[in-house]
Design a protein that fits this description.
The complex is a heterodimer of chains A (about 280) and B (about 290). Chain A contains twelve helices and no strands. The two termini of chain A are about 25 Å apart. By secondary structure, chain B is an all-alpha fold. Chain B has two domains: about 35 residues, no CATH class; about 240 residues, Orthogonal Bundle (MetI-like fold), CATH 1.10.3720. Helices cover about 75% and strands about 5% of the residues of chain B. Chain B is built from twelve helices and two strands; from the N terminus they run αββααααααααααα. Chain B has a two-stranded antiparallel ribbon. In chain B, helix 6 packs across helix 8, helix 10 packs antiparallel against helix 11 and helix 11 crosses helix 12. The radius of gyration of chain B is 24 Å and the shape is globular. The two termini of chain B are about 30 Å apart. The chains are: A mainly alpha (about 280), B mainly alpha (about 290). Chain A: This is ABC transporter permease. Chain A: InterPro entries: Bact_Polyamine_Transport, MetI-like, MetI-like_sf. Chain A: Keywords: Cell membrane, Membrane, Transmembrane, Transmembrane helix, Transport.
């Protein structure tokens, strides 16, 4: 999502005197930004809190010790591993299935595309709660055991449409003449796709997969209903709220946050020179 | 490429993903609808009896929570429009070269898990925590003051968590407005207020519409914020559904509640769409 937004913003600078607001809105926007980032700063700070145990609400002094003991809680580490595994698998499967749909919708006119669009719109706009509960009723009625597999199935399901929409948008802006040129030069459809089309839509596929990865890693609601006794990172945190959150959660949250930010910054820097040329 | 392959290609491409959506989105909805009309229990199994009474019971037992969820969702959505519009407006018209940076900063918190951010708010707002505790120590707040457990905390959490889903679509709509249109309005002697209400606002409405779609449904059906930041007096329908499914294992009742919630939300969204005109709905749907 971030990536798409970063690239789609054309530079328009209106004459200031013609528009209302300005100074007051500038301050207002920064106040809202500060409000948005406040709990994140709290999370980062309290990963350095020298608290004796699970009660991590009052400041007890600065320490690095939780960074050394970040993997001390086996259950939490296991939950994080499950989350990362599910996110990787579902981003690849949803990436493949969603690319197929997105490419077909962007390139061909075919019967049933309207229905498919409607179903995709429905998966994106349905309450997650209803998606989660309905999957639970399906799994219960066919007697499927809940666990990593059912979580992954669910995550692939809600990620497909996001990937498809990102890919479709890219395919729609494709210059068909490049493909026609390849065909004129004797390439068959298969070669044209893999040598010409796929490299062009690859950034969109990558963006879709990153979105799927992020959606999967962060999902709580659908996972809560399809997990059974399996625990993912958000589910573990949810379960721990009643007994108090250990500082390791803050440390892991901080590390995931840093990794995400670095990845986003890196990909925006990489895409910049191409944009200028 | 042969004629038949050319015709078959889109179907072959769509088949795996389409099948997945059919199996794990469409069919579960049907299963849940069917289960809501069945009777029985988890040990002895369920029999389809077309038992509509479950819906009557569901609504009469949990009317309070259902109405409360819709009210919280509506308040959240209205607050989101009021809070998000100026931010989107400023970034779109004054952001200049730094627009991507501002949007990035706006999305920054979303690199932290939704549940973790909400819990972070609880830790900040807790009665003797870093914020209220300090304010009480310097006697800016009375000792018995608390935020957690109140509707304000729950709605605040919802507004916090869904803010970007309102800012982004409004921003996209505002960003598409050609500044020259606004200048033309000024050249035709409209004052800034008139230029805003007659030109900018109507052009931004599709974005606001998309924002409402993206925030009202998830806010009304959310159960994380009300569970983490609320109290029994702020219980939302999502919590009821969650506990009916995962604690009581009363599947027919839980399914009926889940379906009722979806029906009410869809009804709300479509009536809203009718008021604004179906044109915009299709535009949003097509995007």
């Amino acid at each position: 999502m971030t990536q798409a937004v970063l690239e789609d913003a054309p530079v328009v600078k209106p004459r200031r005197s013609r528009l209302t607001g300005g100074r007051a809105l500038y301050i207002y926007t920064w106040v809202i930004m500060a409000w948005l980032i406040l709990p994140v700063l709290f999370m980062i700070a309290f990963g350095f809190n020298d608290t004796p145990g699970r009660y991590n609400q009052t400041w007890e002094g600065f320490t690095f010790k939780w960074y050394g003991r970040v993997f001390d809680l086996d259950e939490l580490t296991k939950a994080l591993v499950v989350s990362l595994g599910v996110a990787v698998v579902s981003s690849f499967v949803a990436g493949a299935l969603g690319t197929g749909i997105g490419y077909a919708l962007g390139r061909f006119r075919f019967r049933g595309s309207g229905t498919l669009n409607l179903i995709m719109f429905a998966t994106i706009s349905s309450p997650e709660l209803v998606m989660g509960t309905s999957l639970l009723t399906l799994f219960v009625s066919v007697g499927a055991g809940l666990g990593v597999v059912t979580i992954t199935i669910a995550h692939i399901m809600f990620s497909i449409s996001f990937v498809a929409i990102v890919v479709r948008a890219r395919v729609l802006t494709l210059d068909r003449s490049i493909e026609e040129a390849a065909a004129d030069l004797g390439a068959n459809a298969w070669t044209t796709f893999w040598r010409i089309t796929f490299p062009i839509i690859l950034p969109a596929v990558g963006a879709g997969m990153m979105l799927a990865f992020a959606l999967s890693l962060d999902d709580f609601v659908v996972t809560n209903f399809t997990a059974g006794t399996t625990t993912t990172f958000p589910l573990w945190i949810w379960g721990a709220t009643r007994v108090g959150l250990p500082p390791q959660v803050n440390v892991m949250g901080t590390l995931i946050f840093m990794a995400g930010v670095l990845l986003a910054v890196a990909s925006s820097i990489r895409s910049r020179p191409r944009k200028r040329s | 490429m042969s004629w038949s392959r050319r015709v078959l290609a889109p179907y072959l491409l769509v088949l795996p993903g389409g099948l997945w959506l059919l199996l794990f989105f469409v069919i579960p909805m049907v299963t849940m609808l069917s289960l809501s009309l069945q009777q029985g229990d988890i040990v002895n199994g369920y029999v389809f009896t077309g038992h509509w009474q479950t819906y009557v019971d569901a609504i009469s037992n949990y009317r309070v929570q259902l109405v409360r969820s819709l009210i919280y969702g509506a308040i959240t959505t209205i607050l989101l429009i009021v809070i998000a519009f100026p931010v989107a407006y400023w970034i779109a018209f004054y952001g200049g070269r730094r627009k991507p940076t501002y949007l990035f900063l706006l999305l920054l918190p979303f690199f932290v898990s939704f549940v973790l951010r909400t819990i972070s708010w609880r830790q900040i707002l807790t009665d003797d925590g870093i914020l209220l505790g300090s304010l009480k120590q310097i006697h800016l707040l009375p000792d018995n003051f608390h935020i957690l457990g109140t509707p304000a905390a729950v709605i605040g959490g919802l507004v916090y968590n869904f803010l970007p889903f309102m800012v982004l679509p409004v921003y996209v709509a505002l960003e598409r407005i050609d500044p020259r249109v606004v200048e033309a309005a000024r050249d035709l002697y409209s004052n800034p207020a008139a230029a805003f209400t007659k030109v900018i606002l109507p052009l931004a409405l599709p974005g606001v519409f998309a924002g409402v779609l993206m925030t009202f449904v998830p806010a009304s059906s959310d159960y994380v914020n009300s569970a983490v930041l609320g109290s029994p007096e702020t219980t939302m329908i999502g919590q009821v559904i969650q506990s009916q499914f995962l604690v009581s294992s009363n599947y027919p009742m839980a399914s009926a509640l889940s379906f009722t919630l979806m029906a009410v939300l869809l009804f709300g969204v479509f009536s809203y769409a009718r008021v604004l005109g179906t044109e915009d709905v299709m535009k949003v749907a097509a995007r």
